[in-house]
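Batch manifest line 282
LIGAND: nicotinamide-adenine-dinucleotide
JOB: complex structure
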Amino acid sequence: MKDFQGKVAAITGGGSGLGRELALCCAARGMKLVLGDVDEKGMVETQRLVEAAHPGTETTTMRLDVSSLDQVQAFADLCKSSFGGVHLVFNNAGVSVGGPVWENTVADWDWVMGVNLYGVVWGVKVFTPLLIAQGEGHIINTASAAGWLNGPSMAIYNVTKHSVVALSETLALDLRDVGANVGVTCLCPAFFPTGISDSARNRPADKAETITPSDVMLKRAELTKAAVAKGKIQAADIAEMTLRAVENDQFYVFPHRKIKELIKLRAAAAEREQVVFDSLNP
Ligand SMILES: NC(=O)c1ccc[n+]([C@@H]2O[C@H](COP(=O)([O-])OP(=O)(O)OC[C@H]3O[C@@H](n4cnc5c(N)ncnc54)[C@H](O)[C@@H]3O)[C@@H](O)[C@H]2O)c1
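JOB STATUS: finished
ARTIFACT:
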C-alpha cells in the first residue's frame, strides 16, 4: 500500500513504546487509528500525543488482551463499526520474562506465549479474511532479532519470536498462493529503548507465578535492561522505517544492520555443526 490518507490502522500495544510511535507515524500520514492495549492509561497518553502532533486525527481505543481470540475479534469489529474497515494491522503487543528455561513456570509460558505468539496468531486469523475481502491491506507483525538469534535467559521470548517469523513467512506465502492483494511485513529489531524491560507492569494476576530469580538471572536481566536502554535506534525511527517498508511492500525489516551479519554467522555455525551459536560472543 502506498496511499494511507483517510485509511485505518489497527495497532496492538498502542499504549507504549513502538506501538505509540507507530500510531504517531500513521497519524502523520492522515490515517485513522484503532488502538488496543491492556494499558488504558497508556492509550490515553498516546491519544494525547497524537492529537498534539496531528490535531483532528480520529482515534478510538479498546482495552484489549491480545491473547484472547474473542477480544481480538471484538477489536476487529470495533475497526468496522468505528471506521468501516481496516487497512494496516500492526500485531505489535509484546512482553518478556527471563530466567533459565528449566525454571520458568507454567504461568511464565502461558503469559508470554499468549501475548507474543497467540496475540499475533489471533491477529492474523481474524484480520486476514477482512483484508482479503476488502482487496487491499497490509499486516505488520513485530517479531525481533530474537526471532533469529538466541541469547541466554530468554527462552520463552526467543521461542515466541522465532514463531512469529515462521508465521509471517508462511502467511506471506499463503497469501501469494491465493493471489490476495494483502502485504505482509515482519519487523525484526534488536534492542531499542521502550518499556519492554518492565513488561511485568501489565502482567495479569492469574498468570503472576514466576521463578525466584537466581544471581545469574538477575545479572542477565540487568544486562538486557541496559542493552534496551542504550539501544542506539529510537522507537520513532523504527516506526518510520516500518511505515516505509509497508509503502515499498518490503517483507523483512532489520533496523539494526549488525543483526544480518550475526544471522550469517549463525548459518555458518550450523554449517560447521559443532557448537551452539552464541550471538553475544560470535
Ligand atoms: N524494545 C525492544 O528492545 C524490542 C526489541 C525487539 C522487539 N521488540 C518488540 O516490540 C514490540 C513492542 O514492544 P515495546 O518494546 O514497545 O515494549 P513496551 O512495553 O513499551 O510496549 C508493549 C505494549 O504492549 C502492551 N501489552 C502487554 N500485554 C498485552 C496484552 N495482553 N494485550 C495487549 N497489549 C499488551 C503493553 O501494555 C505495552 O503498552 C513487542 O512485540 C516487543 O517484543 C522490542
